[in-house]
Amino acid sequence: MSAGTSGAPIRVGIAGLGRAGWHLHAGTLAALPAEYRVVAVHDPMPDRMAEAVAEFGCASYPDYADLVAADDVDVVVVASPSATHAELAVRALEHGKHVVVEKPFATSLAEADEMIAAARTAGRILLASQNQRYSLLFQTVRDVVSSGRLGQIVEAKTHWHAFRRRWDWQTIPELGGGTLNNDGSHAVDHVLALFGGAGEPEVFCRMRTTPLSAGGAEDHVKIVLAWDELVVDVELTNACAYPQPKWLVLGTNGTLVADGDVVRWRYVDPDALTPRVATTTPTEGRRYNTEELPWVEEERSVAGDAYADSHRRMYTELAPALRGGAPVPIPLDDIRRQLAVLDQCRATTTKTPIAEDVR
């Protein structure tokens, strides 16, 4: 089944009208009226559904079963608390709907496999909302790394840093909260999209629960992914008051740093370098070896690229797939690899509480 094959807008039902459902999904879809129309919503809070009815002229369904059974819904967006994603996605797929799932796609690899199996059985599209793949910052990093300008990548670091206290539902483990699900789903997806062609990595992980998060879920996570010739350091924390660069990529020809609104990379052309041979001959004046390198320096500003812009690009690329004329933009095999890494993180670490120093 394709959606909107006549050229009419693709009809969307949204389950969950919280931060993501309202601002990132409903808001984005409303901004793409030629492609999408919000026709139905479900949320346990009646006032939120009433707000959506007033905003979009859509139907509201207090019972999720009625939304997924509605004949005028082509696609269901699952934007409910993380622990419910698998159940709601499978139910929508079993009713013949295409499904978009807010991150984290699932809270375990087993859940992801159940969702993927349901999509394949139903012959429907199942998309993980990995919108951060569409940020200009990440796309620039990907373009530079794939260009080969930096040479062989030796190591990369990505930092998801903040200093903040949280006490919302995303700090509660039973609801699927925690930094591994909330930020790790994006960060690990990025690393695998950049470097996953090297095969499956070894995974090291340590997680901490600090008093900065009220609900007991982890809020400081260190992940190291190691391939034979590459190590990637992923740091996710709410306990960094001096945020480090989002990306630092070290290569045999140069380095990239992405910090704030600017991506910069500095590299040399190896063909322009004088060949060197190791020697035991003492250097003049007992100095270290020195030479002037012919650096090439480039940068790109990504200022003004809002978080919502990445959602707009994702949904714009998804529309042709829903209409039956293009491949799904984010393959399910990619998402399964991500969930496998996150599962390994859970299996190889013990969440250690830190004494309550912050009130």
From TrEMBL:
<dbReference type="InterPro" id="IPR055170">
    <property type="entry name" value="GFO_IDH_MocA-like_dom"/>
</dbReference>
<feature type="domain" description="Gfo/Idh/MocA-like oxidoreductase N-terminal">
    <location>
        <begin position="10"/>
        <end position="127"/>
    </location>
</feature>
<dbReference type="Pfam" id="PF22725">
    <property type="entry name" value="GFO_IDH_MocA_C3"/>
</dbReference>
<dbReference type="InterPro" id="IPR051317">
    <property type="entry name" value="Gfo/Idh/MocA_oxidoreduct"/>
</dbReference>
<dbReference type="Pfam" id="PF01408">
    <property type="entry name" value="GFO_IDH_MocA"/>
</dbReference>
<dbReference type="InterPro" id="IPR000683">
    <property type="entry name" value="Gfo/Idh/MocA-like_OxRdtase_N"/>
</dbReference>
<dbReference type="InterPro" id="IPR036291">
    <property type="entry name" value="NAD(P)-bd_dom_sf"/>
</dbReference>
<dbReference type="GO" id="GO:0000166">
    <property type="term" value="F:nucleotide binding"/>
</dbReference>
<protein>
    <submittedName>
        <fullName>Oxidoreductase</fullName>
    </submittedName>
</protein>
<feature type="domain" description="GFO/IDH/MocA-like oxidoreductase">
    <location>
        <begin position="138"/>
        <end position="256"/>
    </location>
</feature>
